[in-house]
């Protein structure tokens, strides 16, 4: 009688008073979406770009403060060079058509990851988008581009070691807060840690995404491939999130 399946959750209403501040998404399944339609994998990436646009606007209208999107991992360089080249061109195409909409919705673009390894035209598109939206103070659209969490943590360790060596940081000052300030997510300030992490395509793994920051995130794995995900799917994921009881190690009604 009290069975709780996924459809029950979908019939519940979204509570606009309890929208998560930071939503992070592992956008997965573009290749499989395309293959199911007998299309080349890159057709899935192209369609996935449309999903990014729809979900960005929807997230901003819901009042989400930060939307982090995993677009290219430090491990994705292992893919065939033709696919990598296509993925590298996507930010150029995305920003060339979408920056006016971002500005209209007051969305500011930020990036996590080492963009210096990307082709010059991609770096330029990313830098221009950040500059063009620098004065927007609504939602932050935070792209993880050539991002890997182990890379982020390793780089943080190197910078910390340098600062200790130069005397600007004392070992006893290395707290969880100071450590967080050395991560690529530090630019997100009080919203650095995702409240909700969504992964599409049915895979239930983290694939080197924000390992430190998701310590207490609610995880939602959905079966849709990324090109099929939409504003309604985002709402459903948030409804599922709103049904969770976050305890952070304490007790439910504390
Ligand atoms: C996600 O889709 C996009 C990137 C990782 C760049 P995939 O390309 O991983 O699609 P699948 O998982 O192979 O279907
Ligand atoms: C994770 O997806 C990376 C991005 C979404 C950018 P992958 O498709 O690369 O992850 P694995 O290889 O299935 O773990
Ligand atoms: Mg994948």
Automatic annotation (TrEMBL):
CDD domains: Cis_IPPS. Its EC number is 2.5.1.-. Substrate binds at residues 29-33, 41, 45, 73-75, 77, 79, 199, 205-207. InterPro entries: UPP_synth-like, UPP_synth-like_CS, UPP_synth-like_sf. Pfam families: Prenyltransf (PF01255). Binds 2 magnesium ions per subunit. The active site is at 28, 76 (proton acceptor). Its cofactor is Mg(2+). Mg(2+) binds at residues 28, 218. Keywords: Magnesium, Metal-binding, Transferase. Homodimer. Catalyzes the condensation of isopentenyl diphosphate (IPP) with allylic pyrophosphates generating different type of terpenoids. NCBIfam families: PRK14830.1, uppS. Belongs to the UPP synthase family. This is Isoprenyl transferase. It comes from Limosilactobacillus caviae. The gene is uppS.
